[in-house]
Amino acid sequence: MIEVHGLTKRYRDVVAVDDLSFTVSPGRVTGFLGPNGAGKSTTMRMILGLDTPTKGSARVGGRNYRSLAAPLREVGALLDPAALQKSRTARAHLQWIAQAGGIERKRVGEVLELVGLGKAGDKRVGEFSLGMRQRLGIAAALLGDPAVLMLDEPLNGLDPEGIVWVRTLLKGLASEGRTIFLSSHLMNEMEATADHVLVIGKGRLIADVSVHDLVRQGAAAQVSVVSPRAAELVALLEHTEAHIVSGADSELIISGVDAAEIGELAARHGIALHELTPRRPGLEEAFIHLTRDEVGYRAKEHQGS
Amino acid sequence: MSTASVSPSGTKHKPSGLFTTVGSEWTKIWSLGTSRILLLVAVGLAAVAAALFVLTSAVTTGTGIADREVFDVVSTSLLGADAAALTLMVMAAMTIGSEYSTGMIRVTLTASPKRSQFLTAKAIVIAVVTYVVGVVAAFVAYGVGQLILLSQGLDIASVADPRILRLITGSAIMAPLYGLIAVAFGIVFRSTAGGILSALVALVIPSIVGWLGEAGNSIMPYLPGEALHNLAGLTPATSPYAINPGVSAIVLVVWVLVVLGIAQSLLAKRDA
Known about the structure:
The structure holds 2 protein chains of 2 kinds. Chain A is of the alpha/beta class. Chain A has helices spanning 40-47, 71-74, 90-100, 106-114, 130-142, 160-175, 187-191, 211-221, 230-237, 259-268, 283-292; strands at residues 2-11, 14-24, 29-33, 55-60, 75-78, 148-152, 179-184, 196-201, 204-210, 222-226, 243-248, 251-255, 275-278.
């Protein structure tokens, strides 16, 4: 369980994180989404006690990270897979982290096997690809067998097989009742990985919804219409709840009303429709839609399934 | 992927504290290829520098080794230990500087969130490693000097002589002294270069104070360089800089605690 309350980080004249409040619950994979620079990494650093918040608080398992007696056994984190000294072997890298966390030596071999680096353990990490460093970073996060796992962009640089592996691993860990929190700037990555998403933009919370609801919200929003008398249809739609998202010649994209309403309206006025399609935008579009105007969309609290 | 394998096979854990943090810093320094190489370089350089300084004694001091006190020859050979100390100082600066340049400091401070505990552990490991290697380098430098004396059929100095032993083991303190200064300022400036340059500044301060002439006499013994000379028995009792070796030891400890204190105050409040 991660609890963030009114978390704010202000640098000289930039507000990186702005009064952020959310809870990351155990037992599911929670995605932390936002464009680059939205404040995701800053938030994670504050949760880990690396950066001090200007205001607000972040708690892990009910406590401030820096006051945890055995932090690595409570929280496993991966912030930056490249944050290592290159002339050390993978095994030695995990060894010093394990020692700092009071974790026994044989656990190093176990996590190396677990992430598929069993044979590369004695290689210098400088020779590792980004994908291998991601795996090493995940191994380090798993050292303490923590109840909370927090990963910043863990899918970056992974090959398709690696992505499937991370997804399976995280879902398995979540099903054991652990809290899994991972960030990404790519919505479609999250679609297949997360159960729940927190969307932030410019440091503010935009949405706290289940992936299911987010797709549905986005899907309900738009209808694509092709008609030779599109201009007349637009005039008629002005009297309804409809909003014209885009209109080029004969093709319109309409939100606010559903396909049935548009079809009925067109039929009443004898306007022929060549195409009438409810659009089911992917998560990606729903996300762009949400983050386009961060200030306009305030947090809607949903308790997702 | 079976998730059962995620959990550890046993659940024996040591409580994490200063002891485990020291162990972690110890592993860090020994598992880094660059630091291992620099430790060897330090000892090798001590031998080479000792040979050079002793053999060129006639040129650099105007007196050949045959005409010098054997104590002075040992002291000259120990310039090799000074060369080793500078190498170890660079190594110390790199251990912390590369944590900042790679961003690994965040992994360190996530694993050891108590920052004073991390700094204490780092300082203990740096002090022990640089002093042990510094002593080895000093004995090597001394040995090289003695070999040169022997080869020329001159009298040699025995380590059984307390003055000689104090000179060797005392000179080796230069390594942890400047190593710790480099670590402290490596943290202050969050870089290897910042650590090295600061240690070099500390090294040349006595020379700058020396230009003041007599006005500098009262502060000179309390600067790290001269305090170290007093402790090693290099300062003649007649020198205006002479102080009690016990006092000079305290002076050195205070200097180290002050610079580490500066580093700790910044480390504690700054974002990592």
